[in-house]
Write a structure and sequence with these properties.
single chain, about 110 residues, mainly alpha, 2 domains, 2 strands, about 70% helix, about 5% strand
Length: about 110
């Protein structure tokens, strides 16, 4: 519960759901709850995509090659622990990119989304 003074100085208690509904109407006027949720999910997926793309670029810059080339080298050699850890982290980024692109496509296919 949140306590807030109203116009007459009286304290009113606001439930979390009331606060969320109020904020949703202010931030997303004229949208339904489902549309609001879909937009927020899309924004999160886009943010995650950027994060994974950035991770992947860092590894590309570090090793001077793309993931597939790096992977082939790893499979043919006995990498150090640090290089092997980079492999797993880079693979996570590549998988994350594919997952987020799929999620973005799915969310954008809904009506009223960009």
């Amino acid at each position: 519960m949140l306590r807030k003074n109203n116009d007459q100085g009286h304290i009113m208690e606001l439930k979390e759901t009331t606060i969320i509904e109020y904020s949703a109407k202010r931030l997303f006027p004229n949208l339904s709850r489902d549309e609001i949720l879909a937009r927020l999910l899309l924004e999160r997926a886009q943010k995650n995509l950027i994060k994974y793309q950035s991770m992947s670029r860092q590894f590309e810059n570090k090793y001077g090659q793309d993931f597939d080339t790096f992977r082939q080298e790893i499979l043919q050699s006995g990498p150090s622990f640090a290089v092997e850890q980079d492999y797993f982290d880079w693979e996570l980024a590549i998988t994350g990119i594919a997952d987020m692109e799929e999620e973005i496509e799915r969310l954008e296919s809904l009506n009223n989304l960009p």
